[in-house]
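check these tokens.
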Amino acid sequence: MKHNNYARKLVDYKKCMKVLDCAHLIYIDEISAFKFKGISKYNKSRYVYKKIESDFKKINFLIDEFDLFNAAAVMRAVYENIIYIIATSYDKKIKITLNTAPRELRNLIKKNCNCIFTGYFTEGDFDNIYDYLCKIVHPSSLKELTSFLDSKLKYKKYMLNNLKYIMIIIEYMYLDFLTKKAQKEDSKFDLNMADCCTYVNLVNISYFIEDLKDSATTLKRYLFYDTKNKYVEERTKICKQLSIEIKNNEYSIEKNVKELFKELDLQINNSKYVEQISQIMSKK
């Protein structure tokens, strides 16, 4: 396989979004390699632990079936379960009761995130992910707007890809925890894949903004609505700039993606995933 073969295929939107499917394939496979006994001594969590891999596959299936709200609902439940597994693994004195609130466990992780993770995540990330999913799942002004956009096939693909990106970040968060807890060698795909997926989702958002150029201003607030999301706040300018580039010069996007994928491309070509990823990227 020729060098940068994947990057050359990322010319249009659909192929670019397939990078998210590649990341999901790799992360799920790496998550499956860990055994519970090497992760936690809190045996009551082992039954939840065993379901995480299949639950991620279920979320991905729902997204691919265009079932946005059920995918978000399952994702929030899986995210809470992952927080529970991480918290009970880290704090051996923790007591789980009928009244244990998800925020208690998130707060524990936020206070100790530097010890639990390798440094990719900050304190605010854990609440941002949870808040975003809750505002889609619970009746809210964001859910009202999302429900409207979800009924429009033209816009639905952007929301589904954004949700898939959030799933990838949760998978990476979990894998990062597992790797550090088990004191195993870092996955060579970890940071590269997460960074690539972040850029791909920025392209996704930028296409969304460009597609909404003649629509009502309120529709453009989907990704910004009712949130204090650091991800959105820090990247608004980048999204707008990418939107301009997409409109004026699509090859600048292709150039950026090629540069981003050079190292990852070499890793994929020397891995067991090369055939599976080739199949994903070649699908119409």
